[in-house]
């Protein structure tokens, strides 16, 4: 949502200035009038590219949404509910500070969604859902949907991490073990056999010498590479490159595609259910998909819908969505149950992601064992060959 700076007079006739966050100029003016202000001037504030400067734990957002929904449904007013939540140690200190700041802004006259957006910590999806809940008078129900949405996202992430943690551990341990053999074991063995290394052992010793002589440079280069990749992958070019790489690796391609479709459909479902305007919902869903291809088509779909094209046709024209998604969207559009249909589609793709991850892990584990075993076997062969060669040389004397 865009921010607007305003000049106005309050109920006492005093001139005031400030900022208001709203969907458009008309709603911004309405919001100010509802506060009792007489608007004198209103200007759009140009937003910086990087608006969100903090990241929040999913657990904090989920717990916050669920508990706030329960309190509001029980009849507790928003300010008192936020004050109570700000004192709970279940949240991180940073998040409790954000709640206090949100409460202060609400007491100063901001709406809940404006106060959340002002923190530059909550993503656009969260803020827009809260605004829709405020507008429709269904804030508690919307918060429940928000909590359910983030819980499903966290559950899938945790399952993927759990499934891939063992292969990653095995690979990391194996790399450390191989480096340890090269750096510490091989030099002593060569020294024990008179310092001579031939054939494969000579090649391995060259690698060992290189690592021992340049370990500081190699460590700095490794850290630098990791830092660069972490930064680069956050840029549009980095996301595009990663998206392309993921799309050409057969074992990862389907996981990537189904994961993007799951996030897209689930996000769109919760946005439509909360009453967010469809074009804005499509824009936020494309960002949630975490795939630049979806982001590139969001504007095209918006223009089509504005021109009168059905949502089903807009989905079909992108060539990003499989037939099942297009057909289900058409059904949901005709029956008026688009959110329900999209939720079912997201569950379908969530299961496909789970199945694909399990299959990938089941293939990776033996493959890694073969690769690591082969490399260790190569080292053992080189060591044995060196020992055998040394014994032959001794027998000649």
Layout of secondary structure:
Blueprint: E1 3-9, E2 15-21, H1 25-34, E3 38-45, H2 58-73, H3 78-85, H4 93-107, H5 112-118, H6 124-136, H7 139-192, H8 199-213, H9 215-232, H10 236-248, H11 250-274, H12 278-288, H13 292-306, H14 311-318, H15 323-335, H16 338-396
Antiparallel strand pairs: 1-2, 1-3
Helix pairs in contact: 2-3, 2-7, 3-4, 4-5, 5-6, 6-7, 6-11, 7-8, 7-11, 7-16, 8-16, 10-11, 11-12, 11-16, 12-13, 13-14, 14-15, 15-16
Summing up helix and strand content along with how strands pair, one would put the structural category as: mainly alpha
**CATH class type of the domain at 252-352:** Mainly Alpha
Based on CA atoms alone, the radius of gyration comes out at 29 Å
State mean pLDDT (0 to 100 scale): 82
Oligomer: single chain
Order of helices and strands: EEHEHHHHHHHHHHHHHHH
How many distinct beta strands? 3
Largest sheet: 3 strands, antiparallel
Q: If you consult CATH, what is the topology of the domain at 252-352?
A: Receptor-associated Protein
CATH architecture of the domain at 252-352: Up-down Bundle
- Sheet-strand content, in percent, reads 5-15%
Span of the ends, CA to CA? 87 Å
Helical content class:
over 70%
| Continuous helix count | 16
- Low-confidence spans: pLDDT under 50, at least 5 residues? 46-54
Please tell me what the overall shape is: elongated
CATH superfamily of the domain at 252-352: Type II secretion system (T2SS), domain F
**Order of strands side by side in the largest beta sheet?**
2-1-3
